[in-house]
Every structure is written in C-alpha cells, then in structure tokens.
C-alpha cells in the first residue's frame, strides 16, 4: 500500500527553507512563529498543521519511523509535499530534527531551551491533559465518526509515542521519559548543526529581537516581540481547534453526530 504522502501533489516551486526552529514545543515556539511572520517569512507552526486533515496525516506519517519503527525516514521531496509553501518552520521540527537538518542543510537553525523542571511543568499543564482527553469520552468515540478528530487523534498517538515512550501521558514514568527526551534532543541539535548556522537561546535569558535579528540578518522591527507562552492560552487555542474541527465534520455526518455534538458542547 502506498503512503498517504505519495498521493499528495507537491507545490510547483517549493520554497527553500531559510529558518528552521528545532525547539520542542513549550519553548516559546508560538512567539517565534509570529515573530518570523513579522520579519517577512512564510512561517509554519503546529497551529497550521491542525487546520488541515491532510497536514495532520502527513505529520503522522513523518513521525511513524521515529514513533513506531515503521517506514523510512522522510527526505526532502517528502517534506516539500507537506511544507513546500513555507520558508520558515517552527514547533513541528522539534519532533523531526534529524530528518529536517538532513533535508535542508542550507537553512539557519534556532534552538530555544529552558530549565528542565519548568519545561516539564509546562508539558504537564498542556500536552498531558490533551493526550488524556483524547483517550476519554467523548473524543475517544468521536475519532470513529469525525474525520477531523480521527486525523487529530492519529497524529496525537504518534506524538504521544514519541514524547511518553511506552507509558500513558498521565503516568509519572511518561513525564520522566519526556524529560530525558528533552535532554537528549537539545544535546543532539547542538551536535547536528554547525555552530555558525545555529542560534541557541535560553528562555531564562530572554527571547527577543536582539539575538534573533542579527543572526538572521534582519533589521529589528519597530514592534514589540510577540509574547506567547501561557499554558491557559495554549489549552484554549487547542480546544478551540478541536471544537471547530469536530463541528466541521459534523456538517457532513449530521444525522449521526447531533446527539454526540450536544454532549461535546456541554463537555467543553
């Protein structure tokens, strides 16, 4: 059986990647996504992924070799089918760092890091509740009748396998696995990327225009740097996307989903 990505028509002229942010999520990646847009890049983030069923399927497929040991690691022509319309990538490269560094060696790379305990607390307040909710009523049932929820849940399964290993998101062992992954990921990025093509910024030192613009060769904009790292806002944004995605699917399967959607509205 052919892979899903094989059926996707790539853009005629895929954009070369100018900037790739290799940070795992909860490291200021939303602010960087918006900052790169201010600087004139066509910037991509997980928010763009979950806006498209096709993009969620491609992300799932790209993760499968790493999360489940299935298939071959993606190459440039695979990524171009998914990300060819963008010249800057944030958030999702944290889960595919080795593949994207190999695919786009001409890019400049940014890695943001933070205190491990602070990262784990943020993950516990954001990624963990979403992973748990997807395994419970009503989302666990909706994945079987809602195309969007099915694609989102399949993608989340691959992300959870990557982040938590063999443990469930709510298990303490899963969080410890994620901590070790965070350590090894940050070390691996520094090892992979030539130092003259990599900017490393600790969030505790401040993420602002000052280190980013000189590294990218861009003038400092006359606007404040975007500040986006609040767990409550993350949860609201994620569940807003889940609600909209389910509601869109409901239009196509309305007779089946009327009672279920009523429960979902009450739940959220």
TrEMBL record:
Keyword Membrane tagged: yes
SUPFAM superfamilies noted in UniProt: P-loop containing nucleoside triphosphate hydrolases
InterPro entries recorded: P-loop_NTPase (IPR027417), Sulfotransfer_4 (IPR040632)
Top-rank lineage group of the source organism: Eukaryota
Record keywords, A-Z: Membrane, Transmembrane, Transmembrane helix
Gene3D superfamilies (UniProt xref): P-loop containing nucleotide triphosphate hydrolases
Protein's recorded name: P-loop containing nucleoside triphosphate hydrolase protein
Naturally occurring in which organism (per UniProt): Cylindrodendrum hubeiense
């Amino acid at each position: 059986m052919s892979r899903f990505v094989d059926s996707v028509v790539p853009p005629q002229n895929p954009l070369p990647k100018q900037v790739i942010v290799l940070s795992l999520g909860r490291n200021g990646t939303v602010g960087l996504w918006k900052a790169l847009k201010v600087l004139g890049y066509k910037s991509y983030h997980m928010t763009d992924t979950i806006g498209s069923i096709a993009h969620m399927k491609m992300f799932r497929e790209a993760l499968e070799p790493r999360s489940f040991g299935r298939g071959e690691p993606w190459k440039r022509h695979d990524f171009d089918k998914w990300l060819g319309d963008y010249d800057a990538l944030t958030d999702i490269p944290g889960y595919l760092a080795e593949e994207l560094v190999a695919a786009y060696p001409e890019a400049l790379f940014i890695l943001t890091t933070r205190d491990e305990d602070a990262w784990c607390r943020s993950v516990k307040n954001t990624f963990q509740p979403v992973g748990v909710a997807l395994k419970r009523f009503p989302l666990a049932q909706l994945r079987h009748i809602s195309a969007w929820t099915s694609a989102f849940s399949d993608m989340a399964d691959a992300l959870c396998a990557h982040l938590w290993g063999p443990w469930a998101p709510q298990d303490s062992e899963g969080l410890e696995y994620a901590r070790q992954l965070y350590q090894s990921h940050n070390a691996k990025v520094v090892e992979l990327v030539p130092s003259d093509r990599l900017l490393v910024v600790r969030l505790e030192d401040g993420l602002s225009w000052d280190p980013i613009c000189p590294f990218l060769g861009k003038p400092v904009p006359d606007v404040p740097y975007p500040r986006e790292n609040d767990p409550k806002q993350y949860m609201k944004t994620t569940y807003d996307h889940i609600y909209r995605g389910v509601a869109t699917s409901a239009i196509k399967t309305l007779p089946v989903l009327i009672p279920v959607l009523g429960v979902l509205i009450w739940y959220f």
